[in-house]
Each structure stands twice: as C-alpha cells, then as structure tokens.
Amino acid sequence: MKESVIAKKFDQMCDMSPLIRRFLIRSWYQFLSTLDRETQMPFMNLGYAPLESEEEVELLEQDEPHRYCIQMYRHVVSAVDLRDLNVLEIGSGRGGGAAYITRTYPLRALTGIDIASRAIRFCRAHYHVEGLSFFQGDAEALPLGDSTFDAVINIESSFSYGHFDRFLNEVFRVLRPGGFLLMADYREKERMKDLRERLSRSNFTVLRERLINPQVLRALELDTARRTALIQRNVPGFLQGVLHDFAATKGTRMYNALKSGVVEYRSWTLQKPARSAIPDAIYTVSSGSCEKGNTASY
C-alpha cells in the first residue's frame, strides 16, 4: 500500500514540540468526529487478537464487528477484578470501550474523560448505560478530586500527551491507595525505552508488563478488510491514505513498523501503593512503659 506523505508529515510536525503535538492530535480527533456521526467507529484502538495459547472471548452479536478492539480492552483490564470499583477511562475517545466495560463488568461506575469536545458530545448522545458518564477534561490536569477512583484505564492515548509525567502524577492523585493504572500504548523503540524508564521511576509499582506486537499484528491482519471498508465509505479520497496509516491496515507504514519491531506495543498493570496500615491502638509513652491512649507523645 502506498505510504501516506501527509501522515509522515503529520508525524514530523508532532515531533517539533509537546505543545504542537497536543494541538495537532487534538485537532485530528476533533476532525475524526466529523467523519463518523453515527456509531460505525466507536473504537479507535489497533486491536488485540489472542494467539493459540489464549482463548477468544464470546461476544454479543452487536459487538462482533468490533471484536479485536474489544479484546484489547479485555486484555488490558484482565489483571484486575473490576467488581464494585469506581473506574476512570482517560482518553475515552468515541466511547465504545467505556460503554462495553460498563455493561459487561460488575463495576460500580465508569467515567470517561476526553479532551475532544466533539467526542464527548457524541458519547453523551449515543450511550445510555447505567453508571456511565462522560466529561471533557485534560489528562495532564484532570478536573477530578483526589483519591476518587479505584482503577484508571488508558489505551492508545498517552502518546499524544505533551508531558507524560504530568499525566502519571494526575493518575496517581485521583487513584485511591492500592488503585490500578491499566494501560496500553505504542512508541518507536527508543521512545518506548524512555517510557518504560519513566514508569519504573514513578511512584507506581509495575505488576505486569507485556510486549504484544504479535497479538496486535494478528488483529490488524484479521480486521484490515473491515477497516478498509469503513475508510472507503466515510473518508474523502484524498485523505484515505492518512486514515489507512492511522488505522494501521496491512501494508501501511504503521503496520510495517509494528511488524519489524521499529514500533513496540506494550501493556501494563501498575498499582498505587496502599496506605500504610493504621495500628489498632495508639500508644502514649510514659515513664518507660507503653499505655493505650488517644494520642502519642514522646
């Protein structure tokens, strides 16, 4: 497939500065919302296809067209029991993942946050699921209180942030002690090395990390026909090359970069440390002995 010159130029411009990258990617996602005013593209991730040692999930008929994107969500949340948890998705995009997770898992509630106002309007108009809500917000300055969520989902969103460390700090702030960051994203190999170093230096504990290029490539191979049909049906001809590269259909620059290993796709389960255990009793120290009391004095 012919490489998109526009897509290559877009990537070069994104590399100029964090502010330019944030502006361009935000504008791009706003534009994508104008291409699909229905729900033909409720998911934006590259997808995940289990290999032979993994089991495929059973899906409702309505979800089957989006199987590979849904399987990415299921892979990312698989390490954590979401039962009765208050969940936040940062970068909820078109809302398909948030809606699927809310109606499939017995969680308490799910809040989707996205910087693109059109995406939020789309989600509010199309999803009416009990416990699910959407708000506009910046991943680097979340409009949310401290220690309010038990788990944060972040899939193929962090690559667009101007300052990844600010995002990590915000996630750490809004998570309750012992809460989880469930994340998946891709980077060029050197940038992935930097990302992994940032995660290892953060206040989070890395519980699980997986390189999932084979599963992502398998999903792209199986889903290329559907993605191509969507692009041909919804995108003007002069922009179809850009959308093919964005969707990483088979033979595109992005697909080939994943296949060669120039781009790595990884998933993580990270945890905020639990608050130190509070003792059953507080002791007052007096005359060399310890006595139970309401305060501690030394």
Q: How does this structure look, described?
A:
Keywords: Methyltransferase, Transferase. This is Fatty-acid O-methyltransferase. InterPro entries: Erg6_SMT_methyltransf, Methyltransf_11, SAM-dependent_MTases_sf. GO terms for molecular function: S-adenosylmethionine-dependent methyltransferase activity. It contains ten helices and nine strands. It is globular, with a radius of gyration of 21 Å. It has a single domain (5-271), classed as Vaccinia Virus protein VP39 (Rossmann fold, 3-Layer(aba) Sandwich), CATH 3.40.50.150. It is of the alpha/beta class and 298 residues long. Strand 8 and strand 9 (289-293) form a beta hairpin. The model is unreliable at 20-24 and 276-298 (pLDDT under 50).
What are the key terms here?
single chain, two-stranded antiparallel ribbon, methyltransferase, SAM-dependent_MTases_sf, disordered C terminus, 9 strands, seven-stranded mixed beta sheet
Q: What is the number of independent domains?
A: 1
CATH superfamily: Vaccinia Virus protein VP39
> What is the percentage of strand-forming residues?
15-25%
Tell me which oligomeric state these chains represent: single chain
Instruction: Give a short account of the largest sheet.
Output: 7 strands, mixed
Mean pLDDT: 83
Helicity, as a percent range: 40-55%
Ranges with pLDDT <50 over ≥5 residues? 20-24, 276-298
Using the CA coordinates, give the radius of gyration: 21 Å
> Helical segment tally?
10
Q: What spatial order of strands do you see in the largest sheet?
A: 3-2-1-4-5-7-6
Number of strands: 9
Distance between the termini: 74 Å
Principal-axes geometry comes out as: globular
Structural class based on helices, strands and sheet pairing: alpha/beta
**CATH architecture annotation name:** 3-Layer(aba) Sandwich
GO molecular function, one term: S-adenosylmethionine-dependent methyltransferase activity
GO biological process, one term: methylation
Keywords: Methyltransferase, Transferase
Protein name: Fatty-acid O-methyltransferase
